Structure prediction request, 627 residues.
Amino acid sequence: MRSDLFLSGIRYSADDVAQKAKKSKTATSSGTASPLGAVTPPHPKQEAPPYPLASTSNSADADMSIPRSRSTGDLIGAAAATLAVPGGGAPLRPTMTGSSAKYSLFGSKSTIGAPEAAKVKRSSLHLGALPMPHIPGWATPGWSTPGTEEGGTPFSEWGASGEEKRRRRRREKKKRQEVYITMHVAEILQRQEFILKLARAWMMFGAPSHRLEAQIQATARVLDIQVSCMYLPSVMLFSFGDTATHTSDTKFLKQTSALDLGKLLDAHRIYWRVIHDQLGVGEASQQLDELMKKRVLYQGWITVVIGGFCSAFITPISFKGSFVDALAAFPLGALLVLVQNLSARNELYSNVFEITIAGLLSFIAGAFAASKHVCYAAVASGSVVLILPGYIVLCGSLELASRSIISGSVRLCYSIIYSIFLGFGLSIGAELFHAVSKQRVWGADDYSCTSVHDPEGPWWQRTAGPYWAFLCVPGFSLFLTLRNQSPLRRKELPQYVAVLISCTGWVTNRFSSIAFPGRSDITSALGSLAVGLAGNLYGRFFNGTAFVVMITGILFQLPSGLANGGLLSFASTNNSVGSNYSYGTGFQVAEQLVSVAVGLTVGLFCSAVLVHPFGGSRRRGGGLFSL
Prediction:
C-alpha cells in the first residue's frame, strides 16, 4: 500500500525519507551535501526553535499551528528548501516511493517502510516538530489550524474570516442604528416633557392665556417638535405627531391659575434661554420642577397686611372716600384676605366664598355707616376690591379679540356671573343689617358720599381731594404688585417701572372720565392704551417683560369702571324697590362690565400694534409675552 506526502502539489516518496534519515547518521561536522547542491549545516544539538512547537500528543490527528504565507509560491519554496526528517539531514527529494510510517502535513497522511522509521519514538510526526525557519511576513494572526474539525484550508478560512467580518460589521451597524433610535426617541420625549412642563408653569403662574397656544407653537418650532394644542380655561390639550409612524400622542393638562409675577418671570427666563440655545431641555425641565415646587414669596400675615393697605389706598381715589373711610376699609380688606387664605383649605367653602365674604363686609360697612361719619358705598366698594373679577374680564376679552371664541366666551360669561354673585352678597349684607338694626343703611344710594362728608368739616371727614392721588395711586400700585407676588427688590422686575406705568394709566383714565362722563368704555380704552404703550415700549427698548409691568396698571382700570353705579346697585335698590328691579340691575352691572372689558381690549391691542407694527419673530415667537 502506498501513501504519498503532499506539499502544495509537490510529491515526496517514503523511500527517500528513509534514505535521507540513514545519511544523516554519517554526516560530518562540515555538513552534508544534498542532491540539490545545498549544504546542510551540522546538528550538534537539537535546539528549541524560536516558535512554539506542536503538541506532544500521540494522536495523528492532533491540531498544529502553522503560519500563513503571503502567497502559495512562498509557502512551496520555503517548505521545499528547509523540510528535513527528525534528527537532521538533507531536505526531502520529490520522488514517488512506497511508505509505511505516518507523517501529518496539511491534513494529509503518508507511510514509509524503511527500517530507520521504526527508530522514531512517535508514530505520528507533526510539521511543527520539523526545523522551520522564520520567514518575514509568514505568520499573520487570524488563521486557524489546518486539519481541524472544520476541515478548512487557509484559503477557505480566509473567505470565512471575511464573511465573519461582514457579519460583525452588519451587527455593529445595526447596534449603532438601535442606539441612535433609542437616543433620538429619548431626546424627543425629553423635549415633549419640557413643553408640557412649560405650559403647566405658565398656566399656574397666570401667563396671558390668549397667547398660550401661539407661544407653545413657537417653542415647538424651535425644538423641532410637531405639536398641536388647544387652550380651554384651566385645561390645555396637546397632540404630538410622529410622521415616521403616522401616529399621535394626546395629552390633557389641567391646572388652575393664579397670578404670581415673580415665578412667572423666572419661567419666562427659562423659556428664553432654551429657545436661544443657552440651556438644554433636560436642565430646563428640572428648573421648572423646582420653580413649581417652590413656596410663594408672601404668605400668612404678610398677605393680610398687604390686603388691608390695598383697600385703604383705593378707597379715597376711586370711590370718593375720606381719610376716615380709608381707615375703616383697612380692617375689612385684611379680613377678606384672611378668610380667603382659610377658605383655600376647605374646598366646600371655597364655592361660596365670594357671596359670604361680600355679605359679611357689607354688613360691617352698614354698621360703620350708622355712625353717619363713614360712607357705606366707599367702604363696601373698597373692601371687596381684591376679589373683583378684573383679571378674569381682561383674559376673557383678550381671548375673544384673539379669535379664541370658546375660552373667551367661557371667561367673559363667568366674570359676569361672578359680578352678580358679588352684588348679591352685598345686597344680602345690607338686608341683614336692616333686619337686625331695624333701620336702613345710611347713604346706600349715595355714590359720591355727599350726605356723609361735610365740605366745611375737618380734613379727615372731607372727600379726598386731587392731591391725595400723589400718595394713594403709587401706594395702591405698589401693594397691588406685592399682592400679585412680585419681589420687592429685583433687578429684572423693578417696582418703580410697574408703579410708574400704573400711575400713567390712572391719570389717563381720570382725565378721560372728565372729558367723557358716563362712558366707561372710552375711559378704560384710553387708560389701557396708555398702559399698553408704556409697557410695550419698556419691553422692546429695555429688554424687559411687558406683561409683568403692565398687569398692575390694567387691573387698576377695573375698580374705577365698576364704582359708579356698579356693584353697589344691588345694595341701594334692594332697600327701596322690589326684587324684579334688582334682578334687572344685575344685567346692568353685566353690561357695564362688558363695556369696560371691551375698552380694555381695544386699548391693549392698539398699543401692541403701534409698538410692534410688523409683528415679532415667527420662528421664536417674539413679542408673544406681552399683552
In short: The chain has a mean pLDDT of 73.
